[in-house]
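Quick one, T. Sequence first:
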Amino acid sequence: MSIKNEVYAMLRNDEFTVPMLQSMISQRTASNDRSHSSTSYLLNESYAWETYFPNKVYAWSLDLHAAPVGCNQAVYRDVGVVLHAENNHHPYCKYYGLCSTERLQVFSISRGEGFSLDPDHNVLKTNFYNHYQHSREFARIDTFVCSHPAANCEMFEKFMVNSSKSMILYLTTRLEFGRDDMNINWRLRVAKRWGALAEKDMRYEEWIRFIWKYHKAGQLFLTANNVFDQQYVHYMTGLRPAYIPSWCGENDLSFTGDHWTGCELPGDGPYYQPSRHEIVFVPYKQKFWNGDGKLYDALRQGLIDGVTQWTQHRCNASHVHELRVVDCPQLRRPLHFEHGAGALTNHAPSLYKRFPALVMISYQTSIMTFFEFYRLNIPMFAPSLPFLVQLDVEHQVVNGRVYGWPKRFVTAIEEQTGAKVNPAYPPDPNLAYDHAGYKESATYWLQYSDVYQFPHVVLFDNWTHLALLTQTVNLTDISHKMWQFNKKQRLHILKKWDHVFAKAAPHRTRGAFVNDRFVPHA
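Structure tokens:
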């Protein structure tokens, strides 16, 4: 069968997904001219887009990070949704099969301007609409999914006029990202380059009013993959997104039928057989564990002191080598801490399965790798809330949480929602570290971190306590409990997304497809 005819067959196949098509074309044309290997070559405007994906929702994403939509591809498939993503974020877009093609015109991430639609957002939005307004593919689109940054859903505003299309905001990080986020160094550089600093307040207010406008019109649906951003959006807008955790559980294609096997080979239970003994600190991009100045020295020394204190009555001093304890028969298992940057050079999440456990101390309250590690059933340790607040106040460990200092429009929130707002509580989530109220704010907001929302994450109160827990908890049992929770949560996630898409695209039945997977309509 020719590629062209095979494409036609796939487009009418109820099991078709765009990443499948992109993968097939890439494989079939590996030895041919690469300029003919993209979907833009085959899926052009002469084809009958209105006949493709019958009864399914066709969703489109223009995210600048592949993971938010990539982690949910399998879930979208199971609720009758075909999602096409044009993503420029390398190398992650390759990992998820979502890299942009020649089909994407007008918009670019070049030099970072895509995050804020620079240099002129109004011109860019108009040019984008003019280019695609007569597109048969865009006529087929039911909904736009926006995550990173969510504010770039503004690109699709002109397509909302006199149409049944909708937008789904899937918040995976701060609401102001791409608009008023000058606490991010590289975003500050981009804003200075384009002379956009003076308009950041205006752009952010336009974005908030955009949300209110289309939410009220029933064309915008708010969701968040983490409780922190769910609460943060409510604080900033008075609207509460639906909490739908990211799935990320099938990136190794291990899901078969209705029996998820915990990202391993099919069987009756989880597969927990670590081949190495190091307990690894993650995420690997957390530079303070990777030899970065005074902060690194302070935290590393604290951990060394904790290990030494716990082992001093159990092992000879000669057995303790900073973060390793060797040849000590009193230990239940080897005690050896390592950072991900030193333990691995390839940081694909599945490679961390070789380690018995991870220690999650993140620069953010929610990161995509947390979901990836959790779905792999890898036991995780994390600091208790009081200890995390202490580390943050003393060492600024969660220094990626605050993106900027956007205004909270208290009066407008009350007008839009009809609810009375207390301007003093909750505390401002965006205080600087040297602010007198920072500790109170951190104590309130850090409680919504992912590590405190998921069960079976083992919390430690200090470094000595961490050393103790590595020797006393049953890691195999924890992995099994994570596996059991993941199986239940996958169904919960399916039902949540089914409910969202039923509202976002009520004209698409999806019924038989969804019911085949035992997901009742909400």
